[in-house]
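Students often ask why we bother predicting the structure of a whole assembly rather than each chain alone. The short answer is interfaces. A chain on its own may look different once its partners are present, and contacts between molecules only exist in the joint model. In this exercise we take two input lines together and write out one structure for the complete complex. Read the inputs first and try to guess which parts will touch.
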Amino acid sequence: MDVQQYMQQLGQAARNASRVMARAETMQKNRALIAVAKEIELAKPELIAANQADVDAARANGLDPAMVDRLILSEKAIATMIEGLHQIVTLADPIGEITDMSYRPSGIQVGKMRVPLGVIGIIYEARPNVTIDAAALCLKSGNATILRGGSEAIRANQVLANCIRKGLEAAGLPGDAVQVVETTDRAAVGMLITMPEYVDVIVPRGGKGLIERISREARVPVIKHLDGICHVYIDDEADIAKALPIADNAKTHRYGTCNTMETLLVHRSVADQVLPKLAELYNSKSVELRGCELTLSVLTTIKAATEEDWGTEYLAPILSVKVVSGLDEAIDHINQYGSHHTDSIVTENYTKARRFLREVDSASVMVNASTRFADGFEYGLGAEIGISTDKIHARGPVGLDGLTSQKYVVLGDGHIRQ
Amino acid sequence: MDVQQYMQQLGQAARNASRVMARAETMQKNRALIAVAKEIELAKPELIAANQADVDAARANGLDPAMVDRLILSEKAIATMIEGLHQIVTLADPIGEITDMSYRPSGIQVGKMRVPLGVIGIIYEARPNVTIDAAALCLKSGNATILRGGSEAIRANQVLANCIRKGLEAAGLPGDAVQVVETTDRAAVGMLITMPEYVDVIVPRGGKGLIERISREARVPVIKHLDGICHVYIDDEADIAKALPIADNAKTHRYGTCNTMETLLVHRSVADQVLPKLAELYNSKSVELRGCELTLSVLTTIKAATEEDWGTEYLAPILSVKVVSGLDEAIDHINQYGSHHTDSIVTENYTKARRFLREVDSASVMVNASTRFADGFEYGLGAEIGISTDKIHARGPVGLDGLTSQKYVVLGDGHIRQ
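Now the answer. The structure tokens for the assembled complex follow.
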């Protein structure tokens, strides 16, 4: 069987399974999640051996050590996986929820019912924990899923696929509701993103290059996260006692996350006061600073920032710093160079806070809070399939609701249109 | 200037204007709508002359008479256009609305703010009234718009474009917030749908062929309506006094609309009772019936339906009729052959009504009501840019909210992430 046939077969099976999943009861979906957790527990020795074989092969092939790190499934990682499944059991089932039901002048009652999207294709790197995480979220939201993980994790993913199938079947749900692509042929990805008849939406998780390529070539809607060039703007009316911890936390809490600050904007009236203190703080944590001309006049020993810096997501202990003339310049800079992800203003001024919230065109806009809060768990979504930098369908952290749609429900009593 | 340069220039201008529109106050947008109405009033003689020239040219070129009909701007059509603008003034402004604001355990407050999508590209046929309708909805929802109407309406559209620009500028808003593509070069459409840097979403309005082609070629999300193959299912527990008017209204109220019933499903236990009465009713209105084998055993003189009939949107006084064994077969038929638009069950049975609502995978699902109710005005949206048969972003009738997105708003008091 060639890849095309294989993928179409997966697609058809997913479509069929999605119909059953859409009407599955909450209890049944929860039973499946618990059964999957149990199967993983039972398959632990097999899973560890498969992962070891993946890791050995990856090392032999000279895979980047950072990627090998993310490939490794420790005992602790497996325990976290299992705990994650139990957490998703506790989340409210979004499916079937009816809202906004009201009577119209014609006499009909109109409302909206939350429904699954159908079939979700997930494309991700060689991180076997994503397999369970993504499968569980799609399952709970009543969707069928086709998972295509990085080929370096294929052995562990096959073991996990088997656990998921057994768990689904134990709960009386179709085993095909979650399918893991079992070929490492790269053509499989090309097929997956161009089968609108079988796949309703693609969620890519990985590097920017991969996601850009998928967005360009997909014939199916893509819920995507490109990059996180996040800003903190310290206003002249900022409370410095709030500004310093926020600027510290936003940059240094974790360097490799998408909601980490990459550019700090400081009002020129407070630059002299704020920048030396922050420079000391960042210096103590070995954060490299790159400044605009005005910044360099205060912090004389740091490197100059280039035009390229303003549009760079470092994902590293590097921070670009720009002194601005006020709120307008800050907002313009963010809207021009940012990635519409997460931006925060530190100010005590009501009107400026209000303007920042309204005029900054980002998925998350904040006042007096660290950008690191932009996260599905912190926002109370209970779980997160990713963070969308798009505006269509889902924006910002995407939880179970982002994997659903709403249909209109109309109740009448023999009503006809006049 | 070539088409590519021209379209990029429109795109850049729209993007710039969209930033101003996003923060425009409700009052200012309403003033612009009223000013556009006034400009149209003033330009009426010019508009009628331009339209007459369009119509003459279309007739000379042998345009289909039905299309010429839709091209004509009567005095009444112009009055309706002006009234439409005033109606949109009365609609609530969705932009800036903050919902779901709540405190999280960390102490931050998280909610959502409704924001415009940005730049909306609208591609439609030679119907000048759509120019004003679409422009007004995009304007009220704080978006910038690029409008590409059918080339046969180019002269009237240019007059209208001028009225819109004057109205915007009179209200202090950027004239580029609504731009009408002033070239009839077809390459303009190809450009418009492949400029993700300038255009955030495309709304095509027109025939299925046009929309399929745009969806296939677009590199920008498309809010689309393909076809409306709508069903009414008359259950064995239907109240016949409700079933007959609903089946009549759903088919014969208007033949050419997307929410018109195209296939009638009847439970076999009531086929003998219902079908002859309906056949008489449809016969009196010259509706052609095409039946399945079981239907033909009751209505012996009608034409047989072919496999193709079940998947056909007639948009004409033709109806396919199928006798089914029960709810399961009805739901399976609808999900397989329908277009996921609008489907209705007629029944007094609580459990079957509930199952139909949950299991039929359509944008609108109804109980004891005519499919003709699937409409933005009937649903209380106040206006309608179209009806989406997609699941992503907007499903069913799309009003102002469908032209918006939501961003997260986070309010803190110096909060940092632990």
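Check your guess against this: DSSP finds 15 helices and 16 strands in chain B.
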